[in-house]
């Protein structure tokens, strides 16, 4: 067996903080990952090799590692995760993968899910993005991985963590990048939060808006939302209700996840369950 692709090693390294190496993992635990680039570097390399040497220069295994879902398969194999195995694509897919994990758990298809996003940007495509007006004032486009262990909430443990209240998808007439300080009062944003949590229209909810090319900030693509959840929402010292909104490269589509933190900081190395449904 050859060396694992770098993006797979990145995700495996991060997963070690969620899945204890000496702890038996139940068979009905799954993986849900999102990525913008997938394995585009492998695809580019394969195409270049074919153009230079013909199809004989590319092995079947190279094609396999170039599939977007190869990383989720590798992670599941290494950790023995035999539950649902999902790969979602796009800028919003890191948050979408967490929502998909919640859906699988609530449907009874899994006891828990390792969920989040990763990206190892192609230098060629990252350079292309940086040349677009959207990224004119943005920070660098960087590799990143953000993972959470998602499981059914135990009522007795809710006071020690964070609980997913709901989620929704919809369309905004005004892009998040143009709303700025008006995000909380935007009627489409309030309606999106109300769909995620019926009866909740945003009053007292802290809104976090994420989108490609945020001025002055590094962009981790599909890993941006999971990393933001871990480093900002879950690391916040105070409890509260948080709505994380992610808008990708589509001009109007938006994804919303609403979380209630019932305690202070959620420990990074807590027992499985640092993010609960």
From TrEMBL:
UniProt-listed InterPro entries: Ketoacyl_synth_N, Thiolase-like
Pfam families: ketoacyl-synt
Sequence ranges assigned to domain Beta-ketoacyl synthase-like N-terminal in this UniProt record: 23-124
Single GO MF annotation: acyltransferase activity
Name of the protein described by the UniProt record: Beta-ketoacyl synthase-like N-terminal domain-containing protein
Source species: plant metagenome
């Amino acid at each position: 067996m050859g060396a694992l692709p770098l993006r797979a090693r990145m995700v495996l390294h991060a997963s070690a903080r969620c899945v204890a190496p000496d702890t038996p993992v139940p068979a009905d635990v799954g993986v849900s990952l999102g990525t913008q680039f997938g394995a585009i570097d492998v695809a580019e390399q394969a195409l270049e090799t074919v153009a230079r040497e013909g199809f004989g220069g590319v092995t079947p295994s190279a094609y396999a590692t170039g599939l977007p879902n190869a990383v989720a398969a590798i992670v599941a194999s290494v950790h023995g995760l035999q539950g649902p195995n999902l790969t979602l694509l796009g800028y919003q897919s890191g948050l979408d993968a967490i929502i998909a994990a919640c859906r699988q758990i609530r449907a009874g298809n899994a006891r828990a899910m390792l969920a989040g996003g990763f990206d190892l940007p192609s230098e060629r495509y990252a350079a292309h993005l940086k040349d677009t007006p959207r990224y004119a004032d943005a920070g660098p486009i960087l590799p990143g991985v953000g993972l959470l262990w998602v499981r059914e909430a135990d009522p007795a443990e809710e006071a020690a963590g964070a609980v997913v209240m709901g989620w929704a998808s919809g369309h905004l007439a005004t892009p998040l990048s143009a709303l700025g300080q008006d995000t909380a009062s935007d009627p489409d944003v309030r309606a999106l939060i109300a769909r995620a949590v019926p009866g909740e229209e945003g009053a007292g909810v802290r809104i976090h808006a994420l989108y490609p090319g945020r001025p002055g900030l590094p962009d981790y693509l599909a890993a941006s939302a999971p990393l933001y959840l871990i480093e900002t929402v879950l690391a916040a010292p105070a409890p509260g209700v948080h709505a994380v909104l992610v808008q990708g490269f589509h001009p109007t589509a938006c994804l919303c996840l609403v979380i209630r933190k019932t305690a202070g900081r959620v420990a990074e190395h807590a027992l499985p369950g640092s993010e609960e449904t």
